[in-house]
Amino acid sequence: MLAAALWYARQTGADFFKHCLTDSYTLQALAWRAGRTTLDGELPWLELAIYNGRQYLSFPPVPTVPLWVLTFFFGENTPSGLLPLLYLLGGYAAAYFLCARRMRPGSAALLAALLSAGGSLLDVAVSDANFCGAVWYQAQTLAFLLTMLAFLLVDGKSRTGWYWGLVFYALAIGCRPFNIALAPAVLWVFGERLANGEKFGWRLVGRAVPFCVAPFLIGCAYGCYNLVRFGSFFQFGHDYLPEFVQSGEPMFSLRYFARNVRSLLRMPAVWRGWDEMPSVSGFAVWLTQPGLFLALGWFIFRALRGKITAADAVLAGCVAVQACALMLHRTNGGWQYGARYLCDTLPAVVYLRARADRDARPWEAAALGGAAMFNLLAGAAFHAL
User: Fold this and answer.
1) What 8-state DSSP symbol labels residue 55?
2) 311 in Cβ contact with 55 (< 8 Å)
């Protein structure tokens, strides 16, 4: 994983120890230290919400916390380029341990690596000289790490692990709010572990409440932070971005769905040259997010054999809901390599594949490995355009 990331960085010019100019989380961390929620100064290159004449960071707050710590050592020049790489490696480690519960270690290591970095997520973690450590990429990779840890811990046998798994999941929502679509699956698995064979009922709900207090308070903290800034419990600020205010178009709408799906189904004509790759709204989702289709294939295969459990069905349904919800965004990720938004589904995809209880098959490793090689080469070429 690290070798692939270093090779990719060498091709794209990414510098992991450089401060990224689009790392607005560092600016928010410095504002917090000064007792402010607003960002001062002329910052036209950043996605900032303008509300009542003041500038605010329009992204959920959790990724600011690691930067807040780093500002005590580096000031405003935090090594923000390094954070997405560390989040990716940490998420891979969690994916490995999750897979290793149900398959041999070698197979778990291979599958976790190919699922984690065989698609667009490696580009999110590394990117190029201009965007390595950008605000969007920090949020996605930290959400990957936290959601992967949530599934790992909630799936385990430790009561302390269940507690921290739910906390990590609540923090993941504070990175990527649409991760809330996975709540039924996380809570279902948690309920199964807590019940340990007992039937679901009010008694079980009473036993679950103490585990849910901290996640509930974390969610309330998000709402209060939004309320202080934008006067709304559920408003993170995206509605006040100049691009949406000026266009008059909503940020999310059903009318974007078909257009976004068509964009993700485009196949780049690479046989005519790498410069044929689309650079906006994504492309070739089956190549750039191969794990999504692999997990779907395993789910259908097991369903036909009658081996699907209720937890499997809930998890697959949550992945479908999350993917569809991401297709309602006006920009569909904007400038990007591959299918960036769908990286948010990867933790659930890894867990869904792990639940198949089978080692990696040769055809499976070949398909994922081929897709990984394509994405390494195509991603490097994309940033060279």
Assistant:
1) E
2) no
